[in-house]
Amino acid sequence: MVLPHPLPLVPAPVSAVAREGRMPITATTRVLGSSPATAQLIAAVERRTGIRLSVVDEAPAEIELIVDPNSSAPEGYTLEVGDRAIIVGADEAGLFYGVQTLLQLLRQDDSGWALLGADVADSPRFARRGVMLDVARHFFGVADVKKFIDSTSALKLNHLHLHLSDDQGWRVHIDSWPLLTERAAATSANGDPGGFYTKDDYREIVAYAASRHMVVIPEIDLPGHTHAIGVAYPELVEAPVLNDNLIADSARLGQPLPVAGETYLGWGVGHSSVRIHEERTYDFVRDVVRELVEMTPGPYIHIGGDESLGTPQADFDLFAERATAIVVEAGKTPVAWHEMGSAANIAEGTVGQYWGKTTPEGTHAEEAAHFVERGGALIMSAADVTYLDMKYSPDFPLGLTWAAIIDVRAAYEWEPTAVLDVPDSAILGVEAPLWSETTRTYRDVEQLVFPRAAAQAEVAWSPQEGPERVWESFRVRLGTLAPLWKAEGVEFHAAAEIPWS
Ligand code: TNX
Description:
Layout: E1 15-24, E2 30-32, H1 36-49, E3 54-56, E4 63-67, E5 77-81, E6 85-89, H2 92-104, E7 106-109, E8 112-122, E9 128-134, H3 142-153, E10 159-163, E11 165-166, E12 169-170, H4 179-183, H5 199-211, E13 215-222, H6 227-232, H7 244-253, H8 279-294, E14 300-304, H9 313-329, E15 333-337, E16 351-354, H10 364-373, E17 378-380, H11 383-386, H12 408-412, E18 427-434, H13 442-449, H14 452-461, H15 471-479, H16 482-487
Parallel strand pairs: 2-3, 2-4, 4-6, 9-10, 9-18, 10-13, 13-14, 14-15, 15-16, 16-17, 17-18
Antiparallel strand pairs: 1-8, 5-6, 5-8, 7-8, 11-12
This protein binds ligand TNX.
Ligand TNX binds next to loops.
């Protein structure tokens, strides 16, 4: 049953029932709680309303934040808003998500600011709810990444995949190979300015993400997408492979072809490869992985593996096996784009990231299934629904079109367990990637990411059979996020099919 007026919540909770009445929020409203979520709630209410709530350390208080491990499933929470508002999180993450839900209930009417009355019980469908930011094609600094974390964690997304290297640039400092950032980080695609994260920058991003309950997954893309490595260390890479597609695409886009040892400013793919039969390549991989592991508390290191058209298949498979084994030896779980599933002996437990379409083509489904055969699992990033860099409509000024034109409804209406022929338990969750070939500014990023990241957040969080997990409900609830996004300065695309309030 679709309620005529569902509570204005995205992603839809497991259960959410409106109560009569509203709870006023005023300068005398007190908050009880000692979790970081308490300060985050107070700061967000002040940004939105200008009202500064006070914190008290004993009852009574109008808003209470409690952690009780027995209250819900991990990351879950309950929220009641009546005369008082009480959030009980199963853990700190659950409390943080309860706060995000509470912030969506905040409304201004004739008598001032108030919370809509509600009874909510909630926990996520998938443990893994991710978003990817490509900082290699265009570099985005620490402040932008923090804003990205704020606005995606508010949608209850909990993994941030950073695509830290590609043909156009290398974006994180590595002490043992210092020329990567010295020589191969200054520019972005189109010759736009580049940049890189110092180790302290990277640690700052990781800590900030953790404070919003997001796990950072660093990706070094190998063995293809490695032209920039050759700008710093020519001995690690093969000469560029100029295939017919690359030549045709570069001509069409008016972009230069890659030249060995020179910064690459185009967008073509599949022309670069590290040297597979040189031991020095594996010394490099081992050093980079070790330094990333030292500053990455999360369990994953992403080793890339996509579109390595410049690497012969047997070499690619050999590399996939060795690189994933290096990550395991370093104590982390490898993640790889699904192509690496072609390698018979890919390290056991490697997580595959499927970026084929919702109707798989070619060998994609087979490659993805191999991760499961090897005791691993899958993250679903089906390109024709989750790719945040696809255009909303043919005339949208930003984005690409190769996977699909993805309007908000297309982004929303898909089922992650229905794409591949693997057990449902092998699907860890969903990740929505933002590739940055066409996003020259952070504002451009926000235009493509919002509102579609909210669609993927609901696909990943809300129960598959839930009464509100339908387009007609979603579009109405999504529209109610506009004041929140405006208050936070999120420059979302006001897609015409959504009734924005
Ligand atoms: C394919 S999908 C890529 C990226 C591009 C993207 C553009 C995947 C794993 N690789 O190199 O940036 O298309 O949409």
